[in-house]
């Protein structure tokens, strides 16, 4: 429950929109219907080729809290940065246009911020769509140091690494000149939140699920299978490594495991797409890296099944690829 003792600050909700006509109405309606009403909704149509722009305009006529912008396609980072530059709220929230919010998303995240007085707050969990709709029973709120939070966010599988499911104090972002890197289309959100975590006074962490993350959007960059996107993601990870503020063992270890698993995903994509000849030099380097650093795999806190599959790829990429494809067929 949101504390009544606090003034009710304006919260800016920034939604980049691109080619999501199938999901956009549900997303916008979930924002409009928040039980916390003092919000501004910034919808940025990033040159969508479908009907998304028209949907944005239709809702802007219905709700005066909506700001509708139409720009030439410049990518999700440029759209989010534009939203940041015009936001009037004391707090900032990002929502992906194919996702949607529980009715108490804003009030829950604000409550974490009020209780912890942190620059940056997150929920560790979210609903996966399609997926389990069961709510978390333990609703404790914890406070993490910048190093603890950055390590948690970097370590694969601990917390979803998007900029969504989180809330930021706008003044804090401005003072530290934190924006999204526009040269990455994969890992841009991770770069952003790691910078945020490292510069924060502390990070407030809740557990309740209030964000609905869609896994079945086949047009999403995270869903589409592409070798180039993984290569871009590795560049984004290198950028994080080059801008670490803290000389922390836990932070460096989390980054190491994240990079290792991303390299594995890149190898898997190269084999699955049958593009070894196109990426011959990178493939050779990545496979050598995987084998050379296999000890990191064995000590990592990741599922045993993942360790087994990666070990198979290290032994024989051909066998590993065949087994992966077979498993993928069984799941269909």
TrEMBL record:
Report the domain of life of the source organism: Bacteria
Question: Is the Transferase keyword given for this protein?
Answer: yes
Q: Name one Pfam family in it.
A: Glycos_transf_2
Q: Spell out the molecular function terms from Gene Ontology.
A: hexosyltransferase activity
Outline the extent of the Glycosyltransferase 2-like domain.
Answer: 12-170
Instruction: Please provide the record's keywords in A-Z order.
Output: Glycosyltransferase, Transferase
What PANTHER family does its record include? GLYCOSYLTRANSFERASE, GLYCOSYLTRANSFERASE EPSH-RELATED
Descriptive protein name: Gt1
* Species classification: Bacteria, Pseudomonadati, Pseudomonadota, Gammaproteobacteria, Enterobacterales
